[in-house]
From TrEMBL:
<dbReference type="Pfam" id="PF16867">
    <property type="entry name" value="DMSP_lyase"/>
</dbReference>
<protein>
    <recommendedName>
        <fullName>Dimethlysulfonioproprionate lyase DddL</fullName>
    </recommendedName>
</protein>
<dbReference type="GO" id="GO:0047869">
    <property type="term" value="F:dimethylpropiothetin dethiomethylase activity"/>
</dbReference>
<dbReference type="InterPro" id="IPR031723">
    <property type="entry name" value="DMSP_lyase"/>
</dbReference>
<dbReference type="InterPro" id="IPR014710">
    <property type="entry name" value="RmlC-like_jellyroll"/>
</dbReference>
Amino acid sequence: MRRGDGVRRAERPEPLQGLIDRVCGILLSSSAPVMASYMAGQIYSRTARSGRQRLEGETASPPIDAWQRTLSKIKGSDGELAGLMTYLEQIGPYLSWYRSRVGPFASVNFEKSHAHSTILGPGGVEERSDVQLGVTLMAPYCRFPDHFEKQRRVFLFLSAAEACLRDREWMRAEPGTIVFSDAGDKFALRCTSEPVLAVWCQLDDRRR
């Protein structure tokens, strides 16, 4: 992958295809929630055809310390997550980062301590309108605002975190934990001394 190529339609670079393969492979495993596997199957089917690849620089920087700290820790582990992180690190220079607005119960440091990036989807490394796949990064001692999901979404946690779904008890999400949230579900996310890195994906109704 090289910078400056602009928007083009072509075969996917290996890191991008490898990332899609790893994410969908984990979500299609027998240990994944049924709805997460269902969505992964749909995503894998739709991404058989590549979109427009946007190989340009980032628009904002993530919390760099948290990014590098998390990459290094997960890459040093064994299994599927380590392989996934290798591809994510290679794609890293081409990610455009953005931030969410503050909301209910967000930590005071929220604005400066989190970032999102879209890998597949509008404004992503691969521009398309039928699928979204991205990452969320949170620095230590950050809490994401409580919010209601607009669409069905699957989260694959690459590092430890604490999540709360539908106002239930807070759950400990270990690396590799998969959480499915339905449209309309209330969702909350927080972390303590370790940063959070999670992959998320969803289906869009509009086809490109």
